Amino acid sequence: MESLSTVHPAGPAAAIIATLWWVLLAGATAIFLFVTGLIVWAWRQPEGQRDARGFVIGLGLGFPLVVLAALLAYGLVVGERLLPRAGPDVVRVHAEGRQWAWRFGYDDAPGHRTENVLHIPAGRPVDVAITTADVIHAFWVPRLAGKLDAVPGHVNVLRIEADAPGRYDGLGSEYNGRGYRDHRFTVVAHDAAAWDRFLREETP
Amino acid sequence: MTALRRHRALTRIWASDTGWKGWFTTVSHTDLGRMFLAVAVFFFIVGGILAMLIRAQLASPRSAFLGPEHYNQIFTMHGTIMMFLFAIPLFEGLAVYLLPKMLGTRDLAFPRLTAYGFWCYVFGGSMMIFSLLAGVAPDSGWFMYPPLSSAIGAPGINTDFWLIGITFVEISAISAAVEITVTILRYRAAGMRLSQMPIFAWYALVTAVMILTGFPPLILGSILLELERAFGMPFFQVSEGGDALLWQHLFWLFGHPEVYIIFLPAAGAISTILPVMARTRLMGYGWIVAAAVSLGILSFGLWVHHMFTTGIPHMGLAFFSAASTLVAVPTAVQIFAWIGTLWQGRPTMHLPMLWLMAFFATFVIGGLTGVMVAIVPFDWQAHDTYFIVAHLHYVLVGGFVFPMLAVLYYWMPHVAGRTSYFNLGTVAFWLIVPGFHGTFLLLHWAGLLGMRRRIDTYGSGQGWEVINLIASVSSFVMAIGFAIVLIDVVVNAVMAVRGARDPWNAGTLEWAMPTPPAAYNFASIPRVTSRDPLYDTPDLPVQIARGEGYLGDCARGRRETLSVDTATGEPRYITVFPGNTALPILMSAITGVFFLGMLLKAYWLVPLSAVGVIACALVWVWGLGRKETEGRIPAGHGLSLFTAADVPDPPGWWGSVFLLLANGTFFGSLLFGYAFLWTIAPNWPPPAYVDAGTGGLLLLGGGAALILVGTRLRPVWGLALVLAGLAALAAVCAGLMLRAPDPAAHAYDATLWVLMGYALLHHLVVALMLGLLAARRLAGHAAATTVGAARIGRLWADYAVAITLVAATAAMLPGLLT
């Protein structure tokens, strides 16, 4: 149930964005109710010349500028926290999309190749280097992090992390033709021991 | 002359042909506006049926109703039709019908161009419908990202239908935009200053200029992609120095302004209708104009927010995120000015107002979710999910369709001259609005639960089933509501009672005429001193009908209107419009053969039809010339004016200025694309850069000088110099192409060919224009009546010289730097 939900996060990046969403929802609801209230109130007012400056400058210019400045700052801080930064325990893996499958490779076990299953250690930041063999795809594990495109000729790096061992559903999330619906994969997050085993063995 | 006799005389002059022939020869903006609107509604129905198929398919999990082959065509065509064949043409139709009436003039600046654009739209749209019926409709998404839409990803003819059909349709957008711009700036009631224009005209002006600057990147992208598909020129193939992201930049450089091109006309309608419904005047006219202009400008700075997940560096994204949220500010200015207008008036709840309330409730939500997805990290999750589907429908339906329903019910009495009889419209309202929110509100949540856009079906167990069932049922309720609106319109047209003129007690000039409007709009052109002339001069309609304005004397027996000063609206000259003609439909049919030849890869048709189009164009322009000058002729109120044939800035000169704006944007986009590939794309540099050599450079400089001098001499003598100069420039361009003989080898060679081909095309156009001018002089046309044409030729010649020099420099620059 809800294995693709962005609002049931299972990793730090998805959790930060989920929090962002709830803040955005609360703010948007408040603004919507305020604007609707102003409109409804227009029917209960006696007519008469109004001060255009109050509406245009105060509400039209001032109000959104303040709200948006705060929001932008918040968004920027969140965005910076999600970027892939170098660190001692970062794991690097490779994801290559094609019509309609994913192939994964591992810096820590160069010989390993897996099809449609990505193995990662739980509780450690993982950088996924995303490429494509044909058209544009996107790599997305909704419960772990946002999505990033696989563009021909480019390598895009996405930071994901799973809080706990388990299986997480992943999707190709850029429309790519007939087989788009089933362009999916699974992320398996291992505890430290299982991760070591995976790196050493041929098949986990 | 009594008002009735004047009406009969003017009707004889201005009427379209009778019977079926009239449909094909009319150049009247009233006729063509209504035809535009009718065809746009037809495409709305087609797009709506596709939407119903989508919702039927998604109503339950694992549906086997449609397979991916059909589903992909259907969602691609739903988006394509709604954007290109419904929304933009509906604006064009509305502006074509309303603007001359609101501005107090008798027709648009270029009546035959209106007809040409309309028929291009019909023929191009028919191509798209044919592809749908034949089962070969485009299926790569309305955004057509290569390589999925390239020859490798989509080998069939489907994508070609999109690239060629839409480019064909865009001719109508560009011609309508040129037309609207020139009309607003030069064709108004006497004395109507820019600051006294009806607010809708301001919005239409901003929208038209945005079309002129927003569509060229897409037209360029479509041409490049078609060149890649047909001839292997690798603009988007990374292995040969192209880049798939170039398409995304070009597409969204168009695609985001497009959203405002759709919203602004609706906002213009709201600014017009809302004060009338609230029985007051618009609050903050100047602020609203400033907001519309700044929306227009800002909207070009945020295309990258459609590309937040393509791997652009975060600081770059932050800039576009800021620009994207900033665009909410001018939107808020308008929303709160409208609310202020409501506060200062006594609002009534007629049907148009009801639709405006639906607009507020829906569009504000769409705007707020828009701010959400402008925040980069949130977009990383929401992108390409149903959250975006819901958001964009809140914006486009709330911000365009609902206001257009207000437009329908507000101006229907004007078009039909009848008052609404049954209250079907209210019933439809209560089906459409709840149906809409039932369809889309919960889909936001489905998106957050991970439901991707564009999947043809889905499994159960993700919490999507109930949401989708509700959405599908609600969408059918909404569809029934739209059907009732259609029935309402038909019932109104055939059954309702004659209505009064100006039923809403509005103040703008379109209500100063009998309804339905006469072919000539105004029996005489009024003098205007304020924004709401009907409020200041209640008997203005009578004065106009009595011929008390300008050009009320129709003794000359031809279609005349006033051309005015851009800023002050003071009369400058008299424009004599052409009569009914089948030339526009003929020319657009031949243009259609041109596009068909490319679509079917029957390339022999292409030069053949190009010659046909040129022949039509020459006939078209020749008819504008006069042998002898007419001198000043009376325009009424003691004013004597020249006609457009005798002035240095005829309508064609103004049209050329704005067409060159679009053309220059096209060229600028090409340079942008070239710079993008050069600096960003992998697999550069190419095997070799070209160089014209010293001889080439001399030829280039000499040719440019000959043209610049030649266009400033007398036409016949100057022509020899200009032709020599053009030949020199063409030789340099062709020489550069020969130095990179295989345009399929590398994106650099391909770009070089396009740059040079673009220059060569302009050399041909300038040669034809100046040749025509010389021919007119040789045929005995007086110098006085060719001044304007000479200036138009000079404008194009200067442009051709400039772009040739820039293109040649650009082509050689990387070679010089390395």
Quick overview of this protein structure:
The complex is a heterodimer of chains A (204) and B (818). Chain A has 204 residues and is α+β, with helices and mostly antiparallel strands.
Can you put this structure into words, describing what you see?
The complex is a heterodimer of chains A (204) and B (818). With 204 residues, chain A is of the alpha+beta class. Chain A has three helices and ten strands. The model of chain A has no long low-confidence stretch (mean pLDDT 94). With 818 residues, chain B is mainly alpha-helical. Chain B folds into two domains: 3-19 and 29-495, Cytochrome c oxidase-like, subunit I domain (Cytochrome C Oxidase, Chain A), CATH 1.20.210; 685-817. Chain B contains 25 helices and four strands. Chain B has a two-stranded antiparallel ribbon. The longest helix of chain B has 36 residues, at 68-103. Chains A and B meet through helix 1 and helix 2 of A and helix 4, helix 10, helix 11, helix 12 and helix 13 of B.
Present the secondary structure layout.
The complex is a heterodimer of chains A (204) and B (818).
Chain A: H1 12-42, H2 52-81, E1 91-98, E2 101-106, E3 113-115, E4 117-121, E5 126-132, E6 137-140, E7 148-150, E8 156-160, E9 166-172, E10 184-190, H3 192-200
Parallel strand pairs in A: 1-5, 4-10
Antiparallel strand pairs in A: 1-2, 2-3, 5-8, 6-7, 6-9, 9-10
Chain B: H1 3-14, H2 21-25, H3 29-58, H4 68-103, H5 111-133, H6 158-186, H7 199-231, H8 244-277, H9 285-298, H10 314-326, H11 328-344, H12 351-374, H13 376-382, H14 386-416, H15 424-448, H16 465-495, H17 533-536, H18 540-545, E1 559-564, E2 571-577, H19 583-599, H20 605-622, E3 633-636, E4 639-641, H21 651-679, H22 693-710, H23 715-739, H24 747-778, H25 787-817
Antiparallel strand pairs in B: 1-2, 3-4
